[in-house]
Amino acid sequence: MSDVNVSGTSLASGPRQAERRNTLRWGFTLLLPLVIVAMELAVSLVEPRVLSPRNVVNILVQSSYLLLFASAQMVVILTGGFDLSLGMAVSAISVATALVTTGLAAAGTPMWLVVLAGIAVGLGFGLLVGLFNGLFVSWLGINPFVVTLGSLNICYGLATTISGGRPVFNVPDAFSRLLYDGNFIPEIPIPITLAAVVALLLYLLLDHTVFGRSLYLIGNNPRAAHLAGLPSKRYLTLAYILCALLAAFGSLMLTARTGSGEPNLGGSLMLESIAAAVIGGVSLQGGIGGIVPVILGTLFVTMLSNAMDLLEVGGYVQQILLGCVIIGAIFLDRIRVTRT
Q: What structural domains does the chain harbor?
C-alpha cells in the first residue's frame, strides 16, 4: 500500500516539501540584506553622508522604534490577522501618558512615582486595547479588519478629545531620561538597547514556548490547531494583547523622545509597521515569519526613508514609493506561498 494521506498527497513528499519551503524562506530572508547593502552603496554615490557614523547611529535609533511596532504587527499577522488600530493607539497612549505625568508632576508628586504612573497608564491603556481587539476577534469571530478599524476610530477620538487636538507639552525630564536620554550600556543609546532586549525576548517566546509555536499553527491551519487541543481563542486573545503592549511600550519610548504627548504621533505607523513586517518576510497568509526577518524589514524601511530624506525626496513621493515597495513585497510573498 502506497504512502498516501486522506487528501491523496504522498506522505513521502512531506519532508521534501518542508525542505523546499525552508530553502525558499531562507532564500528570501538572505536576499534582503543584499538589497539593503546595494541600496546604501548606490545612495552613497550621490549622498556620501548616508554612510557617516552619525547617520548610521541615527538609522539604528530610528529602527529601534519601528522594530517594536513591526514586531507587534508580526505577532498578530502570524495568526492570520493584523492590527489597523496600532497607530492611533500609539497616539492615544502618548497623550494619556503625557497628561498623567504632567499632572502629577505639577501636583508635587515624587518623580519616581510620576514616572511609574506614566508607564503604568501607557501599558494599561495598551492592555485594554489589545483585550478589546482580541476578545472581539477570537471569541466573537469578527473579522480583524472590522474590529481594529473600529478600535482605530475609538483611539483617534480619545486622543483628540482628551488633548483638545493639541500636543501635551512638558513631560518630566525624568521620564525622558529613563526611556531616551540615558545609557544602560555606555555609548549605546537607550532605544537601541531596549529594542534589542524586546527582540531577544520575542525570539525566545516565539521559538521556544508552546504559546509561540502555537501562534504559527493557528495561522497555518486553524482547524489543525483546534484538533490538537490548543486553546486557540485564548492564544489569539493573548496575541492581540501582546501586540498592543508592544505598541504601548513603543509609544512610551516615542513620548520620552519628543517630551510631549502627540495626538498625531502614530499617524503613519500602521502602514510602516505592516510594511516592515511584510517586507521582512512575514506572510499575510499567516504562520510564516520571525523576529530576524522583521529586523531586516525594519532596517530596509528605515534606510529607505533615511535615504529619501537625505536626497530631499518629497514626503508625498516617499509615501508613493513605500506603497509600491509594500505591493512588491506582497507579490513576492504570494510567489513564495504558491511555490511551497
A: 18-44+53-339 (1.10.3470)
